[in-house]
Design goal:
Bound molecules: flavin-adenine dinucleotide
CATH topology of one domain: Enolase-like, domain 1
Distance between the termini: 48 Å
Helix content: 25-40%
Strand order of the largest sheet: 4-5-10-6-7
Largest sheet: 5 strands, antiparallel
CATH superfamily of one domain: CO dehydrogenase flavoprotein, C-terminal domain
CATH class of one domain: Alpha Beta
Number of strands: 14
Oligomer: single chain
């Protein structure tokens, strides 16, 4: 199958990109690494009339410490994760295959918001701040919980771009764990868990268990939904074991 016809724009600045997003509204879609959007277009599950390719927008390409431009690729962060929380480095190799990580971006993953994806879980776990820009309204910064509304559904308006993701500084002495189970290396997780322990405060998140990554207070109460890849009971049982595993990695009593 081939994608439905679409117009293609390749803006050279953020201002130009935001103009195009404002001009085309619901008809337009940002193109980042294309690793989720292009397959959806080829299957005609997405049929944007206009693509706004962000590849040449310099303002989105850079990392400044823990502030990561939306177009920074997973591969770039895997090569140089210095200054980022170490749980990020542990999660990155699980995002598809290296070819996918070479193209796929942090912004694309968060804007796409697959419930089994690693970045949304990391954003929730680490209390990331997401910066959104549009031409006609002022910039806004949302917490991960405000940004993630449901599976494949975010707070981004049709004319808005995610421009950057900022993680808090990782403190010395912070502890963490990350684990997931996938059918094959490179597949989306069937269940995953991650935790941090910072200043005696323990934070645990599970993902690929339901509509969105979820914070877990009590591992014995994890609920999951099933789909064609795995039944609910299996996902819940695996997630429960993974929570124990990540807590042990972090030196905690599960
Ligand atoms: C075989 C395969 C296996 C994969 N396995 C995994 C996996 O295990 N874990 C995982 O997390 N992901 C996985 N992925 C998905 C991959 O990580 C994608 O790269 C990611 O989900 C989307 O990022 P992208 O940069 O390619 O975005 P695109 O596909 O270009 O865009 C995705 C969506 O986000 C929107 N968008 C992109 N950037 C912005 C922006 N800055 N502002 C507003 N909207 C924006 C687009 O309009 C589109 O709706 C896999 C993909 C494939 C093909």
């Amino acid at each position: 199958m081939k994608a439905a016809p679409f117009a293609y724009h390749r803006p050279r600045s953020l201002a130009e990109a935001l103009d195009l997003m404002a001009e085309h509204g619901e008809e337009g879609k940002a193109l980042a690494g294309g690793q989720s959007l292009v397959p959806l277009m080829v299957l005609r599950l997405a049929q944007p009339a206009v693509l706004v390719d962000l590849a040449d927008v310099p303002e989105l390409q850079h990392r400044d410490g823990t502030r990561i431009g939306a177009m920074v690729t997973n591969a770039a962060l895997e090569r140089d994760g210095s200054g980022l929380p170490p749980v990020v480095a542990a999660a990155l190799p699980h995002i598809g295959h290296f070819q996918i990580r070479n193209r796929g971006t942090i912004g694309g993953s968060l804007a796409h918001l697959d419930p089994a994806a690693e970045w949304p879980a990391l954003a929730l776990l680490l209390e990331a701040r997401l910066t959104l820009r549009s031409r006609d309204r002022s910039e806004r910064t949302l917490g991960a919980e405000e940004f993630m509304l449901g599976p494949l559904t975010t707070a981004l308006a049709a004319d808005e771009l995610l421009t950057a993701v900022t993680f808090p500084e990782w403190p010395s002495g912070g502890r963490w764990g990350f684990a997931e189970v996938a059918r094959r290396p490179g597949d989306f997780a069937l269940a995953g868990a991650a935790c941090t322990v910072v200043g005696g405060r323990r934070r645990v998140v599970v993902f690929a268990t339901g509509a969105l990554p979820q914070r877990v207070e009590d591992p014995s109460e994890i609920e999951a939904t099933g789909d064609l890849h795995a039944p609910a009971a299996y996902r819940a049982a695996v997630a429960t074991r993974l929570v124990e595993r990540v807590l042990i990695q972090a030196g905690e009593q599960p």
